[in-house]
Amino acid sequence: MESQKQLNLTRRQKTALNRDKADRLRKTWSVQVTQGRYRETGDWYSALTHFPAALFDANGYIIFETEEAYRTSPHISIGKQISVRVPGISAIPGYIRVIDDKAPQNFDVDIHAFEVTEGQKRLVLHLQRERNQAIVCRKKEEASSLDCEICGFSFERAYGNNAKDYCEVHHKIPLQEAEHTTRTRMEDLAILCANCHRVVHLKNPPYTLDEMRSMFSGFQRK
C-alpha cells in the first residue's frame, strides 16, 4: 500500500512538472494558446480542453486552433489521454521546431539555482534556463563585435580562429521578471566573456552592465 502511495505521488509530481514545463515553454517561445501540454518525447499527453491549445515536446510544438481540428486530427488518438504515434508530435504536419535536437544546445545559465539529491537521482531545478536560441544566434550575427561589452576580452584574439565565433550572451532581464515577459529584444541581450557573465550573476538580481564596468575600471586603475 505504501509503495502504491509513493508511485502515485511520483506520478503527481511528474504531472505537475510537465504542466509547469508547458507553461514556461509557452511563455519562452511566445506561443499564443490558452492551454499547453508537455511531454519530452512527444508521444502521449493529458487531454486538451481549452483552445487554441498546443502540445509541446523538448524541441518544439504543434498548435490546434480549434477543438474540431483537435478532435478530427488523424495523427493523434484521443481517449482519457492523447496518444501520438512514434516519433511523436514532431512527425505531425504543422509541427514547429524551435530547437535543433541534432545540434549542441546552448543554455543561459542561471547562477541563482539550486539542486537537490534524492537517492541516486539528481533533480536540477532552473539550473538551465530554456531560451529561444534563435534570438541568441541573431544577437551574435548582428553584433559589430563579439568582444565582451564589459572588459573587452576577445576569444578570437586570445585563442585564435577556432574560437572566433564564441562568446556568451547575457539576458539583462532577471529571471523573476522574465517569467512575465513574452518577447526578448536585441537590447535586452549583451555579449559577455565567461568571466564577466559569471560575475554578473554573483548577486540576485544580477549586476547591471554599468555596475560591472565600474568594478572593472576600478581593477584597471590599481
Key words describing this protein structure:
single chain; disordered N terminus; 2 domains; 21% strand; 3-stranded antiparallel β-sheet; 222 residues; elongated; alpha+beta; 4-stranded mixed β-sheet
Number of domains: 2
* Percentage beta strand: 15-25%
Low-confidence stretches: 1-7, 103-130
State the end-to-end CA separation. Answer: 68 Å
* Apparent shape: elongated
User: What is the helical fraction, as a range of percent?
Assistant: 25-40%
How would you characterize this protein structure?
With 222 residues, this protein is α+β, with helices and mostly antiparallel strands. It folds into 2 domains: 96 residues, no CATH class; 93 residues. Helices cover 32% and strands 21% of the residues. The chain has 7 helices and 13 strands. The strands form 5 sheets. A 4-stranded mixed beta sheet has the order 1-3-4-7. The protein has a 3-stranded antiparallel beta sheet with strand order 2-6-5, with no helix packed on it. A two-stranded antiparallel ribbon has the order 8-11. β9 and β10 form a beta hairpin. The longest helix has 27 residues. The radius of gyration is 21 Å and the shape is elongated.
